[in-house]
Amino acid sequence: MTIALEGESAEDALDASSILSLMGLGAEYGTTVVLRAEGEGAEAVLHQLAVILETDHDTE
Questions:
Q1: Is the pLDDT at 60 greater than 80, yes or no?
Q2: N or C: which end of the chain has fewer CB within 10 A?
Q3: What is the pLDDT at residue 8?
Q4: Domain parsing of the chain, residue ranges
Q5: Are 50 and 43 in contact (CB under 8 A)?
C-alpha cells in the first residue's frame, strides 16, 4: 500500500504501512492524499486507513 500527496506521481509514493513514511509525507489535517493498494483485502485496508487519516488527531 502506498500514499502520496495529491498531484505526485505513483513513483514518488511512500510506503503507507510505515509510520515514518507517513510522518515524512508532511501532510497536515486537510491535505488531500492518494492511497493505493492491491491484493486480497486491499479495499478493507484502504477504508481503515482513510478513516484514520480523516480524523483530526490534534483535537482529540
A1: no
A2: C
A3: 93
A4: 2-59
A5: no
